[in-house]
Design a protein that fits this description.
The complex is a heterodimer. Chain A is mostly helical. Chain A folds into two domains: 1-70; 75-331, no CATH class. Chain A is built from twelve helices and no strands. Chain A is globular, with a radius of gyration of 21 Å. The N and C termini of chain A lie far apart (43 Å). Chain B is mainly alpha-helical. Helices cover 70% and strands 0% of the residues of chain B. Chain B contains eleven helices and no strands. Chain B has helices at residues 2-23, 27-47, 51-75, 80-84, 87-110, 116-121, 132-140, 145-166, 178-183, 186-189, 205-208. The longest helix of chain B is centred in the N-terminal third of the chain and has 25 residues, at 51-75. Classes of the chains: A mainly alpha, B mainly alpha. Chains A and B meet through helix 4, helix 5 and helix 12 of A and helix 2 and helix 3 of B.
Chain lengths: 337, 212
């Protein structure tokens, strides 16, 4: 049997199975994240949230999915038909593709590649295309405004995100995600790099266009931003893409700063727990903060958003990078030195 | 075997999309084809085993440069009929330019040869335990440090130039000055005014400055 999995077809089958084992739980996770968001926000705002479909409203995501499937897909006149249909697929596809390199346990990644973090950064920087193409192809002013806003926003916050990642890489000495987690055996990077951890998470909020950075949607000014013209399944794909991106950013935060699958308490009963569970728990905590932030904070004004990205985060991350490099060189802590 | 097939497919897509960049009527489509070309070039790098260059290409060109490029192209108000006007008049000049460029390229490629240094280094295949990210870093930050710094300075000059050329004071824009806002006290902005019946209130002169 093992010999079979060494052949080309065996590797292919194995990869497909591994991908399914990741994508199916991911999609269910996305479905229940929409439910969790509505319930948690309901609790925060002292109301009930969806509780009618199934026990505790647990079947609500499937009811929503069914409703979306039954709706009519409307393509506006004057829209660029091919790009209009392509845009939600790009958004959702990229959000799923990025998961190929995330290690959910020691060496449990579909592709344990040398430059895993670069792959993640590249895929998340491509995410802007789904939005900008959707905004342009809709041939609508509101959609176009939303697209322009989000393009400027995502490009701005990627810069400081890049510097945060470089600082983490400096402490690890490898671009491999598995190595990044293993480097946190003694101390999670969230502790020595605490300001960067916060900056990374906030940039993640901006990168996923979530509140308080959801100016791309901005329903009070530009209706629904880049996806005003979308309906039925193409709308659902955008929606799912947003939530998949949230889970992805949470997984990135977990891997880079919260020690991935490592147990938070490093002795016997806790290290026996499978790493996947610790990973999931940390991802869920991050997701809860995502929802918490959305329910608590008002949306930023556009100039405030840009000022935060360029005048606050960029200088802080830049100085912190130089500082960390200096300290590590001085103390001789640099890996592979 | 499989790598060869993938190479053929990716190279084909790269060439086709490169042609489409030039021929497509809609500028936005042209930029999108350019992005497809970039991505396929990145895959070619991957196939060659240069994963670091591949992802840097994707991050820098696709993730940043092309986004801004598309940003600009989308906002252009292009009149397509005006674009097509005078095509026949300018066609001979265009053909001439194309011919000149083609001639230059032909000359360059005719004289192309591997440098002796490169040929020698092919005798020593890359060591297995050094990833190409590490290998690249060890070269750039030691042998080519001066060139690396120089290219950085050239980019910096280009950036400063672009900012100087485009920056202007926008007098009409309202800006938020956080420091001024936080430093403000109620004494500077608030004053109790007794408004008489049918007379309304008058803002004291010393407060007029701070109240907007």
């Amino acid at each position: 049997m093992n010999a079979f999995f060494e052949t080309n077809i065996g590797i292919l089958i194995l990869t497909v199975l591994e991908s399914l084992a990741l994508i199916v739980p991911l999609l269910i996770g996305v479905a229940y994240l929409t439910y969790a968001e509505r319930r948690v926000m309901g609790a925060i705002q002292l109301r009930k949230g969806p509780n009618m479909v199934g026990p505790f409203g647990l079947m609500q995501p499937f009811a929503d999915a069914l409703k979306m499937l039954m709706k009519e897909t409307i393509i506006p006149t004057g829209a660029d038909r091919i790009l209009f249909v392509l845009a939600p697929m790009i958004t959702f596809g990229l959000a799923v593709v990025a998961w190929a390199v995330i290690p959910v346990n020691n060496h449990w990644a579909i592709a344990n590649i040398n430059v895993g973090i670069l792959y993640l950064f590249a895929v998340s920087s491509l995410g802007v295309y789904g939005i900008i193409i959707a905004g342009w192809a809709s041939n609508s002013k509101y959609a176009f405004f939303g697209a322009l806003r989000s393009a400027a926003q995502m490009v701005s916050y990627e810069v400081s995100m890049g510097f945060v990642i470089v600082t983490v890489l400096l402490c690890v000495g490898s671009l491999n995600l598995n190595d990044i987690v293993l480097a946190q055996r003694h101390i999670w990077f969230a502790i020595p790099l605490f300001p960067l951890f916060i900056i990374f998470f906030i940039s993640g909020l901006a990168e996923t266009n979530r509140a308080p950075f959801d100016l791309a949607e901005g329903e009070s000014e530009i209706v629904a931003g880049f996806f005003v013209e979308y309906s039925a399944m193409s709308f659902a794909l955008f929606f799912l893409g947003e939530y998949a991106n949230m889970i992805l950013i949470s997984a990135m935060t977990t891997t880079l700063f919260l020690g991935g699958w490592l147990s938070p308490i490093p002795f016997a009963p806790f290290t026996m727990v499978p790493g996947v569970l610790w990973f999931l728990l940390k991802v869920m905590i991050c997701l809860f903060v995502f929802i918490w932030v959305r329910a608590t904070l008002p949306r930023l004004r556009y100039d405030q958003l840009m000022a935060l990205g360029w005048k606050v985060f960029l200088p802080i991350t830049l100085v912190y990078l130089v500082l960390v490099a200096g300290v590590m060189e001085y103390c001789g802590w640099l890996p592979h030195a | 075997m499989i790598a060869n097939i993938v190479f053929d497919i990716v190279a084909l897509i790269l060439l086709v999309s490169a042609v489409m960049v030039v021929t497509s009527r809609n500028p936005v489509h042209a930029v999108l084809f350019l992005i497809v070309a970039f991505l396929n070039a990145a895959v070619l790098f991957l196939l060659a085993g240069a994963e670091f260059l591949a992802f840097i290409l994707a991050i820098v060109y696709v993730g940043a440069v092309a986004v801004l490029f598309m940003f600009v192209v989308m906002m252009l108000d292009v009149d397509f009929s005006a674009l097509r006007q005078g095509f026949q008049r300018y066609a001979p000049i265009g053909a001439l330019v194309a011919l000149a460029l083609f001639g230059e390229l032909a000359l360059v490629f005719a004289a192309f040869q591997l440098s002796p240094g490169a040929a020698a280094s092919r005798l020593y295949p890359a060591p297995q335990h050094v990833t190409n990210t590490v290998a690249l870093g060890e070269l750039i930050y030691t042998h080519y440090l001066v060139l690396f710094q120089l290219s950085g300075i050239i980019l910096l000059v280009a950036m400063i130039g672009a900012i100087v050329l485009t920056h202007r004071e926008r007098k009409r824009a309202k800006r938020q000055d956080l420091l001024a806002q936080h430093a403000r006290t109620p004494a500077q902005t608030l004053s109790m005014v007794r408004a008489g019946l049918g007379q309304g209130a008058e803002i004291p002169d010393e407060k007029k400055e701070t109240i907007r």
